[in-house]
Every structure is written in structure tokens, then in C-alpha cells.
Amino acid sequence: MTSSRSSIDHTALALQGGGSHGAYAWGVLDALIETGFRFDAVCGVSSGAILATMAVQGFVRDGADGARAAMAEFWERVIATNVFAALTDHFDRWMPGFELGREFGNSIAMQGMSAMLNLFGAASVNPLGQNPLRPILADLLDRDALADRRAMRLFISATAVESGQARIFTNRDITVEALLASSSLPMLFPAVTIDGVAYWDGAYSGNPPLAPLLALNPSRLVLIRAQSRLRAGVPAQTADILNRVQEIAFQTAIDAECAMLPRSLDFVEFIADEALAGMTPESRANADRSFLDRLFLAGRAAGLPPSAA
């Protein structure tokens, strides 16, 4: 964590996306809320958008305890349903012995998926265009809570495929489709069409965009990263190169915004580099409990005061 000054009143929260790596952001936010942190507005993309949504509706229902419970419930559903199984089940028919890889965890299965993507494209992995998050979000999203007058200001972002521009969804217009659009990686899922416009993952146009938060003139901005800014070594394999290129692309917009923050703003940043060091691109789709617990606990350790960690 880095901070420029001490906390003052109006607080804005920004949550990066990163698939399963978002469990690190979950851990940080869980610890912050447990120790009394409150925010007035939040912006998120991808898994950060879902995390933000769960936190806001949880706060409305039952305060800090409700926010922590709502975030935990989402990740429990991800684990319990093994959300990416639907995308890997049919590999057994194509790759003899692939089922043995399941014994070693979802990460190996996702490496197989990555290889298939490189060879045949997304349609081979997900021919029916399924998004395994849809039933989870349909069950958990509480639009009445988001529209409640007590709800914090909530912004989630998705990227318009044709224009490359961010679309910001706010409390009353956040739907399952909006959350799916914000977290729709084009390598795995089809674009989500809303009002005739096709959208991809919000991280492509801002991870997350800070403009909606800064327009509210906050006194404090807290950014929780779930992507690696720094990664030791120079990648040599194609998959590793593409992963690093994507990481850099996902950071460029927000780093530019951070460089322009007013000096009067109290800026606090939680950095995930150490927790994510050495992780493969496929780990973003690892729904194993042990993996997510490890990231969650790393986030918790970062978010707790030194005396409590």
C-alpha cells in the first residue's frame, strides 16, 4: 500500500478486474471494511465490477457485515459451481488423457484451454457462447438494493467493441447483462450486446476508469489493483509474451490517469505484484478453492493494519 496523505471525508474506491485474480482485491476490501473503511462511490471493471456491486448491495442490506457476506457469497458460488468447467468438459473428447489434468487442478485444465484457443480460436472452446457467470449473477444481483437511496454511487464500465470507448453503467441501469459485458473477455466469451451495441471487458478502455469518481470531487481515492504492474524477466514464449502485452495494455490507461491526479487528493493504492508473481495467464480462470483462498488471504494481509495482519 502507498499513500500520499491521511484520510479525509469523501472517499472514492476503484477496483481493477483480473478474473480469478480479483480474489486479491476481495481480500483487501474485506479487510478494509472489517476495520471500518467506508466509501461514498466505487468504480470497477470485470471481476472488480462484480465485487463492487456485491459490496454496495450488501451494505444496503446489512451494513459492513452485509457487504462482506455478499462478496464472500459470490466467490463461494464461483468455487462451488467450478464456473469454468462448462468450457473444459468437452476437451475430454478431443484430447485423450485431458481428464487426468483435472486431478491437478483447474489451472492445468485452463492451460489446455489456452492451447486450444491458440490452435482453433474461441469458438472451439466455447461453441455455444456460454458464460458460466450468468446464473450466478442472475441469482445474486439485487437491483432494488442498488437503486436504494442509501446505496453508494456505483459505476461499472464495459468497452464498446466498435468504438473502443468505455460505457459507464450506474446503480439503476446495472443488470446481469451489464456485469457480463464488463467481464467479457473476447478470447473466451462472445461480446454482450446492450441497446444494439456490442461490448467487451471494461479493462480494455480503463482498468477501471477514474473519471466518474473524480467528477464527484472526492477527498480520498483508494485503488485496489488486481493486475501485475511489474513482472520480473523478459517472456520468450508466445503465450507469455501475449500475457505481458495484455497486462501492460490493461495498466496504461489507469497509470496515465493516476499520473494526472491532483496533488490535493489523498491517494491510497494497494499493489498486487507480489501476490501475483509467477502466476500464468491461465490462472485468471482458476476457480480452485486453495488458489482463491491464497489470493484472498494475501489481499487480507495487505488490507489489514500492520498490528492486525
What is the strand and helix layout of this fold?
Blueprint: E1 2-3, E2 11-15, H1 22-34, E3 41-44, H2 47-81, H3 85-88, H4 91-94, H5 98-101, H6 106-120, H7 122-125, H8 134-140, H9 143-147, E4 153-160, E5 166-170, H10 176-182, E6 192-194, E7 197-200, H11 211-214, E8 220-224, H12 238-259, E9 266-270, H13 273-276, H14 289-303
Parallel strand pairs: 2-3, 2-8, 3-4, 8-9
Antiparallel strand pairs: 1-9, 4-5, 4-7, 6-7
Helix pairs in contact: 1-2, 1-14
Q: What do these coordinates show?
A:
Helix content is 46%, strand content 13%. A hairpin with a 5-residue loop joins strand 4 (153-160) and strand 5 (166-170). Strands 1, 2, 3, 4, 5, 6, 7, 8 and 9 form a nine-stranded mixed sheet that branches. It has 309 residues and is α/β, with parallel strands linked by helices. Mean pLDDT is 84; it is low at 2-8, 88-121 and 123-128. The chain contains 14 helices and nine strands. The chain is globular. The chain has helices spanning 22-34, 47-81, 85-88, 91-94, 98-101, 106-120, 122-125, 134-140, 143-147, 176-182, 211-214, 238-259, 273-276, 289-303; strands at 2-3, 11-15, 41-44, 153-160, 166-170, 192-194, 197-200, 220-224, 266-270.
